[in-house]
Amino acid sequence: MQFSKIYIGLAFSAAVVAGQSAASADQLDAEYKFYWKGLLVSSAETQLKTTDETYDFALDFRMRGVAKLFANGRSKAKVSGRLNGDSAMPLQYQTDGRWDGDDYAQTMTFDSDGSLIDQKLDWPEKWLRDNKREPVPEEMRRGPDPASLVVKLVSTPLEQTTSGAPFKVRSFDGDSVFEYGITCQPEPVILEPSSHSPYSGEAYECGFGGELLAGKRILTEKQKKKAEKRRRKAEKRRAKGKKEEEDVPPKLWVQSFQNGAYLLPVRAELSTGMGKVRMYLSTLTVLDVEAVDAATLDAPKGPTKTASSR
Asked: Alpha-carbon distance 16 to 154, whole Å?
């Protein structure tokens, strides 16, 4: 399960970058592919629909190729909510999937202020036993959820993330609260062409990191013994003068689309226990869609005009 969370986290980060004011009703469809040592290991299809007052975001993540030998599975997530100024507050968040033969599902429902009012969790017994956490304080059990976090950051001006200080935002996933920080370099860099993506050239490099604020993991005795064993091995390596591999935060490279209306990641890097995983934007379509009724959150009936992808 931990291996899958690493990849899903990077998939969410695929849209966690700053953007500028968009059209009154847009739909963005983007597909990202992930490579390890040149091999395709996973993919993520994302869709974001926004109006002036509402949003819908969906993610479909799947392991591919050789990666299935280590963690075979898929995950889907979707959220509907309301936009109010620079805030994105969820009304309902749903996620489900299957990992290594285990099915799971989760639904969170929020009130109009973004506070959690109901949660339904259908996890395998082993997951519940091995992933116990300290309770999250009542006042912190509120949105944005992991998917709404994407929408929140998409609506943040690039200037706010290039000010020198990290732009920070919290996310509640049902049993823990993380604070994420993003900082983008003020000057662009040049991305070399790649066979994995049609997007190259001028881009902004952004750092992405997170800190656990609530919901600390409660380790089982078996997990404590494994952690102690890893600590002793690390001490022996240091005593022999061997250099420890550092935990490097994920990096994103973003480009401007639709005349500056959106700044989306075109590439990313994440360090894992197996080495670096690289993410590439493979396809992107931006559509103008009919406005969504803010009171009922009815889904758009469909695209009315196809816009250029750049």
From this structure: 6
Q: Looking up tokens 């200037």, which residue turns up?
A: 159
Q: What is the residue extent of each domain of the chain?
A: 2-306
CB burial of residue 282 (10 Å; 0-12, 13-18, 19+) = middle
Give the CA count within 13 Å in the CB-facing half-sphere of 39.
Answer: 11
Q: Are 113 and 139 in contact (CB under 8 A)?
A: no
Alpha helices in the chain (DSSP H): 2-13, 125-130, 146-154, 158-161, 221-239
Helix axes 2-13, 146-154, angle to 10 degrees: 20
Model confidence over 45-103: pLDDT tens digits? 999 888 888 889 999 999 998 777 777 889 999 999 998 777 788 999 999 999 888 99
Distance in angstroms between the alpha carbons of the first and the last residue of the chain:
37
Asked if 58 and 77 count as a contact pair (C-beta separation under 8 A), the reply is yes
Split at pLDDT 50, 70, 90, the class of 309 is: very low
DSSP 8-state assignment for residue 243 = P
Structural contact between residues 161 and 183, judged by C-beta atoms closer than 8 angstroms: yes
